[in-house]
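Lab notes, practical 5.
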Amino acid sequence: MDKDEVASGIERCARSLHLLVTELSAAGRMDHEKAMRLALIGSDLFLYAWQVRKAQ
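Output from the prediction step:
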């Protein structure tokens, strides 16, 4: 598995997390604080994927 495949997998996880948080928040099943924490985790995942792609 090369670094682009790893980065793509990380990005898929981040997108899935974002969709889940969006759906749960829209349905009123997740409070704002938890949604924001999970959104930050998703942002960290996208940053990590970028770092994996840029790694030597």
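Observations recorded by the TA: Residues 3-54 form one domain. The mean pLDDT is 94.
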